[in-house]
Predict the structure.
Amino acid sequence: MHACTGYKTVLFFCCLLFWAPIMAQKKLADAPKIAPAKLLQDLQTLHKVLEQNHPSMYWYTPKDSMDLHFSRALASVKDSMSAWQFRNVVATYLAQIKCGHTSVHFSPKLTKWYTAFRFPQFPLQLKVWKDSAVVIGNLYAKDSLLKRGTIVTSINQLPVSALVDSMYSIISTDGNSINFKSQVLTNNFSNWYKARFGNVDSVYQISYIDSLGNKQTTQIAAYARPKPKKDSIKKTTETVSKSKTIKPVVPKKWTLLIDSATNTAFINLSSFSGRGFKKFITKSFRNIKVSGVKNLVIDLRSNGGGELKNSTLLTKYVSDHSFKIADSVFANNRGIRKIPFGSYFSVMGHTLAKLMISKKMDGGGYHLKRYETHYYQPFTKNHFDGNVYILQGGYTFSASTLFTSPLIKQKNVTIIGEETGGGYYGNTAILIPTIKLPRSKLLFRLPLYRMVMDKTRPKGRGVVPDILVEPNSYAIKMGVDNKLEAVKKMIQQKN
C-alpha cells in the first residue's frame, strides 16, 4: 500500500512538471465568465449586508457618497465577468469605506484554481511609497539595467503616480493614510499589477533613472516559468523517490536579540497571533531584566495585527501607567442580519459571541463595556523602565496600533519610521466573520464592532512617528535598513 502511494505521488509530481508550464501560460481572459444578472445579485447582497451590519460604513464616507459608489459598481457590470474581474469591482466599492478590515478575496477553491493563471507575470518587484517606485528584485537575475535601487518612473508610458493610484483603488485601508497600501504593493507588486491590469502584455516598456541620473527607457519581457528539461524531470523524480521528505524552514514570527555592546535588546514581532506568544514575551522580558540592558527596540514594521490579548500583554511590560483598550466599542445590532444562506454556518460563532458579550446602551447600539471601562495595570515583575524605541511602517496595523496607543505620549518611548496603516483614532478589529457571495463565490470580511481608541484624537490618519524616516533609493540600493540605523544612532548618542 505504501509503495503504491509513493508511486502515485511521484507520478503526480511528474505530471505536474509536464503540465504546469502549459497551464501557466493561460491568460486571464480565458477564465470562465459569470452572467451579469448573477453579479448584480451579489452586489445587492453585499450592499444589504454592509448596511445592516457594518459599524463604520459611513465613518469616513457619507451615505450619499457611498450610494453613489454603489451605483457606479452596478453600472460597471455591463457584461459577463470572471471572478477575477468582478473582484476588482467589489474591491473598488469596499475601498471607499476606508476600513482596512473590510476587504474581498478569493475562496480557497478559487485561489487554487487561479494559480493556473499566475504566469506570465510582471517581472519586477518594486518598493512603492507615495509617488515613487524603486526596484528591489528582478526575476531576470542577469538584467544589468533594472537592478536593485533603480528608480522606475513609468510602466507602459503610464507614470508611476497614476499607476499606483489605480492600484490603490482596489486596496482597503484605515482612513486616508496610504502607507498601508504602499506596503501591500511592495510585498507583492506583480500580483497586484496583474489583479488591476490583467496579464495582456508580453513586453513592458520601463522608463527609469540610470546610475548617472539620466532618464532612460528599456523593454523587459513578461516572465513565464521555463519549461523543465527532460533530464531535470528525471533527476527530480529520482530525488523525490529516494530522498526523505524535507520540511520547509518557516521564518520565526518573533525574535529576541540582546546586544551587550550597545546595551540594547531587539524584539522583532511580525504578528500578535500564534501559539506560544505569551511564553515568548514572558521569557524575553525575564532575559532582558537579567541582562540589565537600558535600551529596548520593538520592531513592528511587518506586524499586521493579531490577538488583542497579546498586544495588551506587551503593553503591560512597557507602559508606565494604567490604560484601557478604547473609549468606545460599538455594534449596530446584537445579531448579524441579511446574511446569505450559505454563510450562516460560518458566522454562527460570531453571532453567539455578540449575543453573549454585548450590552444594549441607552444611546443606541450594543457595546462591549469591559473594553470601555476596564483599566489594565502595568506589570511590576520584569517591567522594562529604560529607553523604548518602536519601529513602525505602513504595514503596522490593527493590534499593533492598539499596542502603541497607550504609549504615544510616554516620556521614555520614541516612535520611529513612517505613519502606520492602522488607524490612530480607531478601527474595526474585533469579531470579523467572512461572508461568501453566493454567485461569484468571492469572500469578504465583515467587521462587527467599531472601536474608538481615543475620542479626542483626529480621525482619518495613522499613528504619526516622533521621528520620520522614509525610504530612499540609495538605502535600498546599498541594502541599508535606514530606520534601524537611525535607532542605533540615537542609542549611540545617548550612550
